[in-house]
Every structure is written in C-alpha cells, then in structure tokens.
Amino acid sequence: MANELLNVQDLETVFNTPDGVIHAVNGVDFYLKEGETLGVVGESGCGKSVTMLSCLRLVAMPPGKIINGIANFKGKDMLSMSEEDIRHVRGGQIAMIFQDPMTSLNPVMTIGRQMEEPLLLHMGMNKEQARKRSIELLEQVGIPRAGDRLKDYPHQYSGGMRQRVMIAMALSCNPQILIADEPTTALDVTIQAQIVELVIKLREQLGMAIIWITHDLGVIASIAQRVMVMYGGFVIEEAPIKKLYSDPTHPYTVGLLGSLPSTQKGARHRLYSIEGMPPVLYQRPQSCPFAPRCRWVQPICREQLPLLENVDTKHTVRCWVDIKTGKVRA
Amino acid sequence: MTVSSEVLVKVEDLKMYFPIYSGIFQRKVGDVKAVDGVSLDIYEGETLGLVGESGCGKTTTGRTIIQLYKPTAGHVWFQGKDLATLKSEEMRQVRRNVQMIFQDPYASLNPRMTLREIIGEPILAFGAATGREIDDRVADLLKLVKLSPDFVGRYPHEFSGGQRQRIGIARSLAMNPQFIVCDEPISALDVSIQAQVINLFEDLQQQLGLTYLFVAHDLSMVRHISNRVAVMYLGIIAELADRDEIYGNPLHPYTKALLSSIPIPDPIYYETRKRIVLEGDVPSPANPPSGCRFRTRCPIGDAHCAEERPEMREVTAGHFVACFKA
What we know:
The complex is a heterodimer of chains A (330) and B (326). With 330 residues, chain A is α/β, with parallel strands linked by helices. Helix content of chain A is 32%, strand content 25%.
C-alpha cells in the first residue's frame, strides 16, 4: 500500500532470564498508515510494549533478543539497518513517550536543557534557535509561562506537566510516528483527559500517525481509529474501533469488554470475569495461549495454534472457534 | 444485599493534619491538611465509595476513620462508641470488627511468612483459637476467597497479584469483622483480574453482611460496587449521594468535571462527546485556596467563593453538596 508508514512482519522477541527464556513476542504482524491512530490493547506481560520497543531496537540486548521478523519503516527494515540509521529514525522520525514521565526526564538537568538537546543534536540549530523552538513547543503543549519554566527542574513540574514536556520533546523533531506507551496510566482521570485532548489536538495540527499502547479500553475508545488486542505475545484480534467494540470476536476481547462495569443507570449486573491469569511464556506457545482461560474452548484449541484470519474485511481474529455458534470455524 | 438504616460508622468533622517541619531547628512551619473537616455516615451493609484524585485525602480519610492515624480533630463513632475516647485495650477489641485491605498486594504481605502465618496471625493475636483450630480456620478462609486450602504452607511470592489480593482479603476476614476499609484494592491488578476481585467483594458482602468503605480512583468500578458515593477534593467532601443520583445528576462542578473525564469504553460516545476538561492541577493541601477549595479550577466560581467556605447542604433527600452555586 502506498501510504503505509510502518509494516511489521513475524516479529519475535525473547528474553533470557535466570529462570529460562521468556517468549515475549511470538510472531506479531501489523501495519500503520500515515496519519492514523492505532490502539494496542492488552494486559501486563502480553508483549505490547516489547513489540514497539523491538521495532525501534530499544530492547536491551542482552537479556533481550529479536530472533525473527522485519520492521519496515517507509520501506527500510529497522531491524537490519545500521546503528547510525536507526538512531536517525529514533531521533527524528519515530518518537516515543513512556508511562512514567518522572523517570524519563533527567532530574538534575533543567527542562530547558533537556528540550534543547535534541534540537541541537538532530536539527542542527544553534543555542538561540533551540531556545526559541523549545518555548514554542512548550506553549504548543499548553505549559503556561513557558519562557520562565525552561529554567525549572523536572521535580518542579506536576505529573501532568511532565507528560506534556515529554510530548513536547517527542514532537521537537517533527516525527511522522508517535508511539505512546501507556502515557496516561500514572495520571489522574482529569489530567488524563487533558493529555488525551492535547494529543487529539496535536494530531489534527501536525498530522502524525500515533500508536497508543494501553490496557484501558475506555481511553482507547476516545482516541484510536483501529485497535489490535494482544495476548500471550500474539495479536489475537484486530479491527476498526467501532467494529471491535460492537462485534468483538475473540473470547478474550469479549471477556475484557464484559469485565468493564456498566456506565448505564440501573441495577448492577455481575461483572463477567475471565478466570485464571495471563500465561508466563517459558515456551513459544504451540496451541492457543488463551485456551486455559477460555469458556468456548474446543479440543483443537489445546493442540494447534490458530492463525490470524479474516472474519470480515479489515477484521482479523486468531481463534479456532466461532463464538456465535460455539463450534470450530469451518 | 440489604442495607439497613442503622448507622454503623459516624464520622463528624474529621481532620487529619500532618505537620511540616523546616529549618535547622526543625520548627513546625505549617500543616498538610490532608483531611479537613469530613463528615459522613456509613450504614450497616452498604458500600460507600470514596473517590477523588491523588492527594485529595481519600486514603488518609480511610485510615483515620479506623484510627490508624490519631485524628487532629473530630470524632468517629463505631457502633455508638466514640473511638477517640477509648482506652487502648478497648480500641484493640474494636479492631476485630474494623479491618483494612491495602492497595499494594506485594507490599502488604510479609514475604517471609507462609499463608498459614499471615492469615492466622490475627487469630493468634486475639487468642481466638489455638493449634489445629487455627489451621481449620485458615483453610476455611482460603476457601472463602476461592483459593485452595492446600496453599497454606506457601509464601506470597508464589502467587500472582490477584491471588495475593485474595490472601489480603482472607487475612482481613479472619476475625469476622463488620466494617472493612478497602483502600484502592484493585488498582494494582490487571483488567481481567479486577473483575474477579470485585465479584469476590460482592459475594463476601452478601455472605457475611459486610460494610465497605471503598476508596478508589476508578470511577466506573466505584459506580459498579457502591450504594452511595462521596467525592473528595483537597481534604473535603464535595458531594455525596446515592450512586445513580450522583452519576446521573451531579451538582458540584468538580463532580461534573470528574465524571465527564471518565474514559467510556464506547467509540460511538466520543463522536458526540462534550467533555469538561479541567484546567490545571490540584493545589497543594499545605496551602489550600481560601473559601471554596475548588474555586481555582472552577468554571463557575465568583468572589463569594473565595471568601466563604461552602458547607455541606442537603439539596434533595440524601444528596449532599458543598457548593454555593449548585
């Protein structure tokens, strides 16, 4: 496709730990188009962050190791390009923000110096230009009195403000893709709403593509156009946002959506709960990783790994069973 | 579940200040007013949700109610007894009936103790049973929270977050309490595990007739589990009402903003959304604004709000709000 920015195929990442090899990502395929927002949903340990870190080669190696796959960014494979080239991509074209803005900022450097650093390094600006651009960026993300606040240190900013600074830094080199890894998880709901609104506004202004990683199905509903759900290191379902919420097809997605409390008035219903807990992957799964917790499970689920298959145009699912009939899909 | 009209816990003008010391002589220079005049009633058999943003004093309120902190001022009555006047042995006896479940299931269990020791400790401390009886009771408690009684010899690290939270719940139930303060009991858990634990809380309430003070910042879970909900802001209660009333007809501008920032898991909702996004952050509780605490971020505040502190008033039956404009 012409406007595909990112195309990842068969990505596999493992970690060597003292307890054995953990298979965190087990063959993930996805793509990202220009200007679109892709939501990545899953619980802790499902491989959603590792997938994105692997694409940018930000996984610590060792203990991590990318054992398979390609990650094409505008036709060039990031997994095989030179260190010099990947640094160029990371610095300028794909930017990433993380969950905890405090640990991502250097506590002994002023916000100003941290803002100016990438501008001096990647954009070839001089000191004066970098300062001006920093103020511009901070104003863009809604930091009042930006000129004065450049002299402040990270601890003088609140959590929401720090995340705004992180976003400003990520935007400083005009990235084409912004990867946001649980950027609002550590924040209060009112601050979370501010950040989500800000990112939506910036997306309209700057037209960048966004990958938004989260475990919160509410946040993703407000920002993404397309969602992929991950479990056990696999993509298990992928669909346009409305389709996924109105017609979830994988038992895990059904369970996740069902486990959310109702937002409607009236008598409370019992929450749907998925029994058991997410797997720890000491082996690459040879059968469906969700089978032990699934209420639609069939014998084949415990024997063979299902493939990610289309159930509709643009709606793919990795499951043997058609949950509407309860039988194995023909 | 039946909520009685009996007040189990009555809180009146509760204040909890933490002193700030500064300088080389460590002189007291001020107070963090974490809880600054909270009054509420908790009825037998109900779940009262207590919500608010971080730093609003909801956890401190929970802890002060069960006297884990000695309140700076105010009273807490439990079953008609004023806890502040009790002698330490009397207070110890009250503690059988008043328990707490903590947020972090990793930090709240001693890693060097087996489940038998963790869950059996309250029983031992109160001398309620000995030897084999303790083992039987521990096994019963594990079954009650849907864990296998075979786990008694294991250590906390062998369990997942959701299982550990169940262990914490079993420990809190050991002395058959009537009132449990649940301090963010699900926020450290994964989404699919949260529903399991919430269902367990509901089952236990049904079986044992428990009363919960459910402290949380997840507004949709609070809506699900609570009978009534209190919204806190900077040490005070801004609004308190029945669950459907407060979510359906919020009166305080803070409640309105808070509720409208709940992420709704429905993409269609966002096509027509009208979200009230609050400006700025919560002010410091060491130096709260004069008059109404919320006025610095309030879209409808005026000069009057800066001068006088709005008292809680009952707008309609059971619906309390602390705002001049509401």
